[in-house]
Amino acid sequence: FIAGKRKATEVAHLIWKNIILRGDTVVDATCGNGYDTMALLKLIADGSTRGRVYGLDIQKSALENTSYLLRESVDEDRWDLVKLSLLCHSRMEDIVPKDIPVRLIAFNLGYLPGGNKTIITKPHTTMSALQAASRLLMSGGLISVVVYVGHSGGREEFETVLSFASGLSVESWSSFKFETVSRPSGPALVFILKK
Ligand code: SAM
């Protein structure tokens, strides 16, 4: 399924499609320009009032871009299913209700494409956010991480994600990584599944 000119994010979306059920609650931990939020919304939306996408970003412009994309591309009756918060993803537990099982938590790390490249995810907060994600996730759920290793600090952040994944108990978790072989600076994917 990785054949052709697929981007790493499209590969992640294909995996999500096999995990998410209509009516699920999911989290986009890095909304950016909203493409992942929109993909998540399309997978959870089922015409009922169930299901939510909780989206976070630390940049107002990212949340504005996400809202704009949703309003342009998704039917109005579905806009309400997305709850956007201007908040660091390490604090996702502040906004996701404790009693709702979360099926998928998506991270697309790095900086906002077309935005300020110095506002970027950092290994320390990424680690806290992954820990928060592991507490929120339901059994059978997925933490999906796209990491860009080509920019300064990217390789270190990838190592942080790997160290988080490899530190989880094998009784309850399994994790997988996909690395770009054709380009040494290409993105990597890490999928962390809760058994
Ligand atoms: N998912 C996005 C999309 O589909 O367009 C792309 C995300 S972009 C690569 C990374 C985003 O992470 C940026 O918008 C950036 O502002 C955001 N970010 C950086 N640090 C963050 C943090 N601590 N908490 C939440 N978002 C953060």
Plain-language structure description:
With 195 residues, the chain is an alpha/beta fold. It is built from 5 helices and 7 strands. The chain has helices at 8-17, 35-44, 60-73, 123-136, 154-166; strands spanning 25-28, 52-57, 82-86, 102-108, 137-147, 173-179, 188-194. The protein has a 7-stranded mixed beta sheet, sandwiched between helices. A hairpin with an 8-residue loop joins strand 6 and strand 7 (188-194). The longest helix is centred in the middle third of the chain and has 14 residues, at 60-73. The protein is globular. It starts with 7 loop residues before the first helix and ends with a strand. The model has no long low-confidence stretch (mean pLDDT 94). S-adenosylmethionine (SAM) binds next to helix 2 and strand 2. This is rRNA methylase YtqB. It comes from Platanthera zijinensis.
Number of helices: 5
Helix content: 25-40%
Spatial strand sequence of the major β-sheet: 3-2-1-4-5-7-6
What general outline do the C-alpha atoms trace? globular
N to C succession of SSEs? HEHEHEEHEHEE
Mean pLDDT, all residues: 94
- Secondary structure tally: strands: 7
Oligomer: single chain
Q: What is the C-alpha radius of gyration, as a whole number of Å? A: 16 Å
The molecules bound to the chains, other than polymers, are:
S-adenosylmethionine
Question: Sheet bearing the most strands, described?
Answer: 7 strands, mixed
Spans where pLDDT lies below 50 across 5 or more residues: none
The rounded distance between the terminal residues' Cα atoms is 24 Å
Task: Note the beta-strand portion.
Answer: 15-25%
Find the structural class using helix and strand composition. Answer: alpha/beta
Organism: Platanthera zijinensis
Protein name: rRNA methylase YtqB
